[in-house]
Write a structure and sequence with these properties.
CATH topology of the largest domain in chain B: Amidase signature (AS) enzymes
Order of helices and strands of chain B: HHEHEHEHEHEEHHEHEHHHHEHHEEH
Structural class of chain B: alpha/beta
Number of domains of chain A: 3
Largest sheet of chain A: 9 strands, mixed
CATH architecture of the largest domain in chain B: Alpha-Beta Complex
Helix content of chain B: 40-55%
Number of strands of chain B: 11
Bound molecules: zinc ion
Radius of gyration of chain A: 29 Å
Structural class of chain A: alpha+beta
Distance between the termini of chain A: 59 Å
Shape of chain B: globular
Oligomer: heterodimer
Number of helices of chain B: 16
Chain lengths: 477, 478
């Protein structure tokens, strides 16, 4: 695809995210909801779909679904379950109990760190299928000699979150899933593990002439197991569709399989072959209508969402929400907010948290906001240089002590007073007449040489900014 | 033969042993079952063991349940732990459920003695038991005739004296119509009154388990034991079982009873005559009886034959050869599905799966399934309107008495018409029961159907009790 071609087209992406809920038990039976156990051990007549068995809805799964709905600003409505009928060996009843035209959550939105809102069409409940392993072929059912089915996953509660087709790039798709994952984890409903399949993403990708408002023909991409593969798959598929359209072909509506090793998508089935799912209301379940009291309890129990946390930190630190997204993601916003509350300089607190603290998650867990505020203040007031402050913080994170003043004293750290520093700077100027002349001639690059020399002479105790200031005074004065 | 009420009393007081009772019934089974074929499986050893257990408890002075020592036959679509449960279909070949249905569990606790699993139309789809993969059941009153269906085996077991009690399931009349054909009492309770957990589904929104017995009081007793909320069935009504025994003899003085006009049309004249006589009898007993129109009932059959097959097409998908039952040896998964289901299901089951699949197809859903659900709402509405003026309603149970084998097998529509009077109650979720009331011109029994509003079992048993008393008196007089 040429850059010109890329400029003529724009991609439109809608995402369907299946989220396994972290309930104790499955959606319709008392079997444990657990990952990675001996196959077919967490099963019973209900989740095996044995004749005569009947489903009973798990209250905790409804609670989690409502939390997700609240967190995504959805309308939470009375809902019903439908049966989605199709034959597949890992589906014990040969129908999936899901929600269809009356889902529990609809019409919500999610805010990306950059402030853009992506519409959430719906977030409905359904049961997971079992897991098939196709043996003796290429891993597909068609060329297998036999298949093994593990029904431990059958009946595990899922919430499927469907976005509006409002995502405009592979990068934005990754940002959406990343943000959604953080929200799902914050609600307590999910562990957010894409690698273990507890979060599964399908992407509906189409392209259209840039500026057009109509949607192009879409393809649904499946089998992306990480944020990275989501990005790669969407990039690939976008290019594939643009190439087709540029060469005068058309895109065929179909489901495509992402192959991580080959780095490309391939056709699974076209729309013509698509199943007629014969949806109809599940007669074995009754309508679900959470009362106001329950809804209020769910609302009140929700932890703050990532976007709220970004806003809170950004406002306290006088910066933009996008600038603190990583800190929130790393769960360091609480520490920084508390340090600012204790009087720490916001800019230095953000910096030290984003670099030194973030680099040591174990140490971060030990670090008290109060001690952190103190080391930041030592730096902000010039009592410690930046270099010294980082060393003190590293010692605190390593668990040496939570008293920054004591560590600084132990190390013999004292910010040099200005007159002592001036003397050292003068010595260095004297010893380097050639570079000094170049500095006087306006070559800014040589200032690094002077700072380095001063640092060497003072064993790193000098403040680099103070050295620069003295150099400028000598030049200008 | 003694009634269940008498047997339970005699066993409890030590007047008779459960062992004697069960031997008496097993003897009857041995004598006539080879001819009648009421059972897919006779549980002689298990029954003797269960009876011995009851006797041991009685001897030890332990408390025994309300059905202690009473022989009981289970329709073979009710799951019994470790015992074959076939639905009279080849597709469940070799399958033994690892669990008991809720009703089975409640009956075990009550001390009932299971004597066998009874024959049925495959997956309860039929009105004559001719659709069983294991051959038909014969009507014990005239073996040239069908016992009705789909619970024909259960009705025949009670009529032949194999057991005083039996359980059936009723989706469109599958308890009431065979009860009428075999001259016994059959009850379809309010939808949700009896747990469906462990009943192998035909049409989930219509299926309901219910009693067969020789007397109205025995059905009342059995229903009291099996009804009541079950947390394993989401559609189970959160209420305890109703008290019905007193209702049987409470009389009908002051009750308002409506004779459904639409369900007297197209009925054999002898059957219609018995129903009118039943109305007269109730009137004489102090009830106020009038004709009433429940107009939408005439659309019941059409709606039923969309809704029931639609649900069945989905419920029966799981018989795919993957996990249990029959599996055809085929080269790939699709061929395995096709060959398994082609070999495992009989023609009527296939017909209904196809009907139901079609009714739910994209583009047809609204015209068929959607429309049928609207009719269902209309029927409920018309019933509700009638119940503003009446406490119970009356109709024939079936348009005819028991017909001859083969009379309707070539014409599915004629067979379907056999359920025209019973289907409306299933669509509305209301209780209804069949009470024997005289005979037709052919000497075969006629069943009168008593219908009541949702959870109206008490008034229904009052009317049934009064009809039974009158019918018994008439027999004595004759
Ligand atoms: Zn289970």
């Amino acid at each position: 695809m040429s850059p010109d071609a890329a400029g003529r087209w724009e991609v439109v992406i809608g995402l369907e995210v299946h989220c396994e809920l972290r309930t104790e038990t499955k959606l319709f039976c008392g079997c444990r909801n657990a990952f990675g156990e001996e196959p077919n051990t967490n099963v019973c007549p209900v989740c095996l779909g044995l004749p005569g068995s009947l489903p009973v809805l798990n209250r905790q799964s409804v609670e989690y679904a409502m939390r997700i709905g609240e967190a995504l600003h959805c309308d939470i409505r009375p809902s019903i379950f439908h049966r989605k009928n199709y034959f597949y060996p890992d589906m014990p009843k040969d129908y999936q109990v899901s929600q269809y035209d009356e889902p529990i959550n609809s019409d919500g939105w999610l805010e990306l760190p950059n402030g853009k809102r992506i519409g959430v069409t719906r977030a409905h409940m359904e049961e997971d299928t079992g897991k098939s392993t196709h043996m003796g072929g290429g891993g597909r059912i068609g060329d297998a000699t036999h298949s093994l089915v593990d029904y431990n996953r059958a009946g595990v509660p899922l919430v499927e979150i469907v976005s509006e087709p409002e995502i405009g790039s592979a990068e934005e798709a990754r940002a959406y899933v990343s943000e959604l994952r953080a929200i799902l984890v914050a609600t307590g409903a999910s562990d957010g593990k894409m690698e273990e399949g507890s979060l599964r993403v399908d992407a509906n990708v189409s392209v259209r002439p840039r500026g057009s408002t109509a949607l192009g023909t879409r393809c649904e991409i499946k089998n992306m197991n990480s944020l990275r593969s989501l990005g790669r798959a969407v990039e690939y598929e976008t290019g594939r569709q643009i190439d087709l359209l540029e060469s005068g072909d058309r895109v065929v509506q179909e489901t495509r399989h992402w192959n991580e090793d080959e780095g490309r998508t391939s056709s699974m089935r076209s729309k013509e072959e698509a199943d007629d799912y014969r949806y109809f209301p599940e007669p074995d379940l009754v309508p679900l209508a959470p009362d106001d009291q329950w809804r209020k309890a769910v609302r009140d129990s929700l932890a703050p969402m990532p976007s709220d946390r970004r806003r809170a930190l950004a406002s306290a630190a006088h910066t933009e929400p996008a600038a603190v997204a990583l800190l929130v993601e790393q769960d360091l916003d609480g520490l920084v907010l508390a340090a600012i509350g204790a009087g720490a300089d916001p800019r230095i607190a953000l910096n030290r948290a984003a670099n030194e603290v973030a680099a040591d998650p174990d140490g971060a867990a030990r670090l008290s906001a109060e001690s952190f505020a103190r080391v930041v203040t030592l730096e902000a007031t010039g009592k410690l240089t930046a270099t010294q402050s980082k060393q003190v913080l590293a010692a605190m994170l390593a668990g040496e002590s939570d008293d920054p003043e004591a560590i600084a004293e132990d190390r013999g750290f004292e910010a040099m007073d200005t007159s002592a520093l001036q003397a050292v700077v003068d010595q260095v100027i004297e010893a380097n007449p050639g570079p000094w002349q170049r500095f006087l001639d306006g070559d800014p690059k040589v200032s690094g040489l002077f700072i380095g020399q001063v640092m060497k002479k003072t064993q790193g105790q000098a403040d680099g900014k103070a050295v620069t200031r003295i150099l400028q005074e000598r030049r200008d004065g | 033969m003694k009634t269940a009420v008498d047997i339970a009393e005699a066993v409890r007081t030590g007047e008779r042993t459960a062992a004697e009772v069960v031997e008496e019934h097993l003897g009857e089974i041995e004598r006539r079952e080879p001819e009648i074929h009421a059972f897919n499986l006779v549980l002689a050893d298990q029954a003797r063991q269960a009876a011995a257990d009851v006797d041991r408890r009685v001897a030890a002075g332990e408390s025994v349940g309300r059905l202690a020592g009473v022989p009981l036959a289970l329709k073979d679509n009710l799951c019994t732990r470790g015992l074959p449960t076939t639905c009279s279909s080849k597709i469940l070949d070799g399958w033994c459920p690892p669990y008991d249905a809720t009703v089975v569990e409640r009956l075990r606790v009550a001390g009932a003695v299971f004597v066998g699993k009874t024959n049925l139309d495959e997956f309860a789809m039929g009105s004559s038991t001719e659709n069983s993969a294991f051959g038909p059941t014969l009507n014990p009153l005239d073996t040239s005739r069908v016992p009705g269906g789909s619970s024909g085996g259960s009705a025949a077991a009670v009529a032949a004296g194999f057991s005083p009690l039996a359980l059936g399931s009723d989706t469109g009349g599958s308890i009431r119509q065979p009860a009428a054909f075999c001259g016994v009492v059959g009850v379809k309770p309010t939808y949700g009154a009896v747990s469906r957990y462990g009943l192998i589904a035909f049409a989930s929104s219509l299926d309901q388990i219910g009693p067969f017995s020789a007397t109205v009081a025995d059905s009342a007793l059995l229903l009291e034991v099996i009804a009541g909320h079950d947390p394993l069935d989401s559609t189970s009504i959160p209420q305890p079982a109703p008290s019905l025994m007193e209702a049987v003899e409470a009389g009908v003085d002051g009750l308002r009873i409506g004779l459904i006009r639409e369900l007297l049309e197209g009925i054999d004249p002898d059957v219609a005559a018995r129903v009118r006589e039943a109305a007269d009898v109730l009137s004489a007993a102090g009830a106020k009886v009038e004709e009433v129109s429940v107009a939408a009932t005439i659309y019941g059959l059409s709606a039923y034959y969309l809704i029931a097959p639609a649900e069945a097409s989905s419920n029966l998908s799981r018989y795919d050869g993957v996990r249990y039952g029959l599996r055809a040896d085929a080269s790939d998964i699709t061929a395995m599905y096709e060959q398994t289901r082609a070999a495992g299901f009989g023609p009527e089951v296939k017909r209904r799966i196809m009907l139901g699949t079609y009714a739910l197809s994209a583009g047809y859903y609204d015209a068929y399934y959607g429309q049928a659900q609207r009719v269902r709402t209309l029927i409920t509405r018309d019933f509700d309107a009638a119940y503003e003026h009446f406490d119970a309603l009356l109709s024939p149970t079936a348009p005819t008495t028991a017909f001859a084998f083969g009379a309707k097998t070539e014409n599915p529509l004629a067979m379907y018409l056999s359920d025209v009077c019973t289907i409306p109650s299933n669509l509305a979720g209301h209780p209804a029961m069949s009470v024997p009331f005289g005979t037709g011109d052919d000497g075969m029994p006629v069943g009168v159907q008593v219908l009541a509003p949702a959870l109206g079992e008490t008034v229904m048993f009052r009317v049934a009790g009064a009809l039974e008393a009158a019918a018994t008196a008439a027999t004595v007089m004759a």
